[in-house]
């Protein structure tokens, strides 16, 4: 179960909610684990918490552990993004020329090679 937690109280509630269906008693060790886990997770994800005002946290009942389920950031933003998509059909001899160009200029991507050629125009 994942819950968006804004404080250690939310983390304690998450633990209690996960234990209730299993008929496990919610005792002091669970509370202490939740409190220490909140401080660790909050410290590790301070930037995410500052931006979103919560941290999505999952509780594993078997191991009595909490972990943050923070999505990883996507690709970094660039100053001059390539937003237009162009599709081109090439003959085998044109592909061979493009391969030669890529090898001689140490380019590993057709798109980058084509952008370089266009910049030469």
Describe this entry's structure for a reader.
There is one protein chain. A three-stranded antiparallel beta sheet has the order 1-2-3. The chain is 50% helix and 12% strand. The protein has five helices and three strands; from the N terminus they run βαααββαα. Strand 2 and strand 3 form a beta hairpin. The protein has two domains: 67 residues, no CATH class; 37 residues.
Features of the shown structure:
121 residues; mainly alpha; 2 domains; 3-stranded antiparallel β-sheet; 5 helices; 50% helix; 12% strand; elongated
Number of strands: 3
- Outline the low-pLDDT stretches: none
Arithmetic mean pLDDT: 87
Distance between the termini: 57 Å
DSSP helix fraction: 40-55%
Question: Can you count the helices?
Answer: 5
Strand order of the largest sheet: 1-2-3
Instruction: Compute the CA-based radius of gyration.
Output: 26 Å
User: Which term fits the overall shape?
Assistant: elongated
Note the run of SSEs as H and E.
Answer: EHHHEEHH
Helix and strand arrangement:
Blueprint: E1 2-5, H1 8-19, H2 28-44, H3 46-52, E2 55-60, E3 65-68, H4 92-104, H5 110-120
Brief synopsis:
By secondary structure, this protein is mainly α. Helix content is 50%, strand content 12%.
